Structure prediction request, 417 residues.
Amino acid sequence: MTFKTISVVGLGYIGLPTAAVFASRGLDVIGVEVSEKAVNTINAGKVHIVEPDLDMVVRGAVHAGRLRATLTPEPADAFMVAVPTPFKGDNEPDLSYIEAAGKNIAPVLKKGDLVILESTSPVGATEQLSHWLGEARPDLSFPHTQGEDADVQVAHCPERVLPGKVLQELVSNDRIIGGLTPYCTERATELYELIVAGECIATNARTAELAKLTENSFRDVNIAFANELSTICDQLDVNVWELVRLTNRHPRVNVLNPGPGVGGHCIAVDPWFIVHSAPEKAKMIRLAREINNDKPYYVVNQVRELADQFKKPVIACFGLAFKADIDDLRESPAMDICEEIAEQEIGEVLAVEPNISELPERLLSKGIELSSVNEALERANTIVILVDHKSFVRLPKEKFAAKMVVDTRGLLSRLNG
Ligand code: SAJ
Prediction:
């Protein structure tokens, strides 16, 4: 059976682009969202999240009548659940959004439907979703009890797109497709092949769940290695950026870049799902999380040491976003560092973030001012480079010559002059 109508549950930074891409391939897409504001925005052909070209693709899909958002689920041939999986308490994964999404779509499910979990999930979550659906619909059979003969198929296909390149990577990346049974995998592969140019690789649900967590943990562990190196280098008076550049000339070495800590909604979260599932075994993964979480405090101490030389320290924080050339300030170590410098009253704090027009209340309430690059370079005696935005990389090196600088991104070695 071919897929004609797709329902995407959760129109966030993964769900909305996914919905728009399916719509652009000629499928009828129903987006289900709990936020009425988001529903209205999307139905007006607009977007509520910032992602290059997304506005254009959504506008096209809505105007062509292929994409529609709603608060209440409607019948469809396939349901893709793309809701958040945050953690709660002691770094324990919070599956309540997945449970709510499952219970929400259960009443409209029918024989032959496919349900896909796209949300990053701990091992076992896809089977758990199948349980929740089965509880809500005892009249239908599901793969966790009925195997290959189930009425409804359930699979996990983790998203792996990079914020800032979502539309491109949605199509070009390979996809891991893990069904609860081989038939579930087969059905899910048919669906993804409608939009994906990369390869769809078949596996089971548990392996697909752990694969996604492993990808982000791999990156976290490698960034932790770089961050640990940066503190060793400071102690031994070696430039870590030059060190990384040199070691990476070895054909089998690829050290990542140190930074002010790890931000974003994935890499700093997902490794905890592994730690929570196997606390005795996941020693290195836990340690990497701790090293990366400690890095912002290390940076604040560096700033304090330099700023203390001045009678009236004026500290400019260059960059607040969680990485270069985006405006996303959530889960950003740069935000934490800027706030902590003000909280510890190390000096007057100026924040430079060319991608935003006003500071979040969290910083304003600490007396931090949003400043332009030029004003900050004029007024500050201490500079902490937290993000390597393109506009900073273009600055002439001499602008920093008379300042005390903590460079968490190795920006100075990339400047001209
Ligand atoms: N960072 C460093 N040093 C580096 C690389 C990154 O300090 O060498 C920092 C960044 O500054 C940032 C954080 O790590 O604070 C994360 O940035 P990122 O660009 O590495 O990744 P995200 O969080 O934007 O997206 C990741 C991606 N995962 C991988 O690359 C393995 C993306 O493909 C996933 O889809 C996404 O997580 C997700 O949703 O899980």
